[in-house]
Amino acid sequence: MFVTGATILHADLDAFYASVEQRDDPRLRGRPVIVGGGVVLAASYEAKSHGVRTAMGGGRALRLCPHAIVVPPRMSAYSAASKAVFEVFRDTTPLVEGISIDEAFLEVGGLRRIAGTPREIAERLRGEVLERVGLPITVGVARTKFLAKVASGVAKPDGLLVVPPDGELDFLHPLPVERLWGVGKVTAEKLHARGVLTVGQVAALPESTLVGMLGRASGRHLHALAHNQDPRRVRVGQRRRSIGAQRALGRSTRTRHDLEAFLAALVDRTTRRLRTARRVCRTVVLRLRFADFTRVTRSHTLIQSTDDTQLILDTARRLLHDARPTIDERGITLIGVALSNLDRDNAIQLALPFDGTPAGTLDAALDGVRERFGTSSVTRAALLGRDPGLSVPVLPD
């Protein structure tokens, strides 16, 4: 169905991890909070006002905001809060597309007669999330997914912004180019070097000029977004294509043992989430970002689907070993693991020979301990004394 009104909501929890910590500990409310020590996983708006940002090194963050309170991450608390918020989303409309643990698109175009206008629905949604879950949430409302997400970004924190169809370009074009999806530091620098600072200036350029500056895919993508051309609709019931985790490493030199320890922590967390979701994977993906901002992805597809932590870790270690010469040459600032080619866990075909030992016994036991006593209750010896520093974007089930 073609929808012409501003009926797409982008709902985005504000400083999610930090907000959960402030909700659960009244002593943290109104104070600058940093989640994660070695690397900032999240920062409250009180900390952000001092320049603290996600993925920033912990030392730099504390220099910017010396009076910040640093708390360790509690992934189980964030997961529970996310599930509660998504229940509010689904009580609002059946058309919910989760895009991360703390944000989603909602289509409300068919609810006018029973629930009111999109603005009224968005206002009620914000009140329900605050009342039922105790968290602030920002909502952007627009005709396209792209513009709804931009609107929520402009409205943060704890705001609501509706962009009417007849005012889309008037709203969009004065914004800085960084508001366009896909414009990171490198792309922004290329645009700025040509004197292109606003979305309106991007829109004024011919598509061929942008393609010449940024390449075919990026040039066409930004040209379309600068004119608010985004035909994607809210899609429900999309199967999760991958489960992943990553760690920002900052600019510090990392030894081989450091990287292997971080990799083990990432694999432990992703395989646990894989089993919780009752999934298995066939492909293990290693993602690296180097000090010169270039990225590389290496992957290996297994003969058979699995949820076995050790098998997946061994595969990831081989991928890391193969990438070692490039790491030594360029330096590394981020390491990530993703598990893809997912299937239901009952899709595993048992392999011969059988040795009589139940598969995954150790994994299941460790999962149970961590579920009951917390994610840090059992850890690898190589990780003792290290900050977990994990960023795990996972869609709620």
TrEMBL record:
Gene Ontology MF: a single term: DNA-directed DNA polymerase activity
Domain of life: Bacteria
InterPro entries (UniProt xref): DNA/RNA_pol_sf (IPR043502), DNA_pol_Y-fam_lit_finger_sf (IPR036775), DNA_pol_Y-fam_little_finger (IPR017961), DNA_polymerase-Y (IPR050116), DNApol_IV (IPR022880), PolY_HhH_motif (IPR024728), Rev_trsase/Diguanyl_cyclase (IPR043128), UmuC (IPR001126)
Positions annotated to bind Mg(2+): D12, D102
Enzyme Commission code: 2.7.7.7
EC category: transferase
Pfam families: IMS, IMS_C, IMS_HHH
GO cellular component, one term: cytosol
UmuC domain location: 8-184
Free-text comment on the cofactor: Binds 2 magnesium ions per subunit.
Keywords: Cytoplasm, DNA damage, DNA repair, DNA replication, DNA-binding, DNA-directed DNA polymerase, Magnesium, Metal-binding, Mutator protein, Nucleotidyltransferase, Transferase
Active site residues per record: E103
Gene3D superfamilies for the chain: 3.30.70.270, 3.40.1170.60, 5' to 3' exonuclease, C-terminal subdomain, DNA polymerase, Y-family, little finger domain
Cofactor: Mg(2+)
Swiss-Prot/TrEMBL site (Substrate discrimination) positions: Y17
Reaction catalyzed: DNA(n) + a 2'-deoxyribonucleoside 5'-triphosphate = DNA(n+1) + diphosphate
GO biological process: DNA repair; DNA-templated DNA replication; error-prone translesion synthesis; SOS response
Subunit structure of this chain's protein: Monomer.
Chain's role: Poorly processive, error-prone DNA polymerase involved in untargeted mutagenesis. Copies undamaged DNA at stalled replication forks, which arise in vivo from mismatched or misaligned primer ends. These misaligned primers can be extended by PolIV. Exhibits no 3'-5' exonuclease (proofreading) activity. May be involved in translesional synthesis, in conjunction with the beta clamp from PolIII.
Family: Belongs to the DNA polymerase type-Y family.
The protein, known as: DNA polymerase IV
Record organism: Actinophytocola xinjiangensis
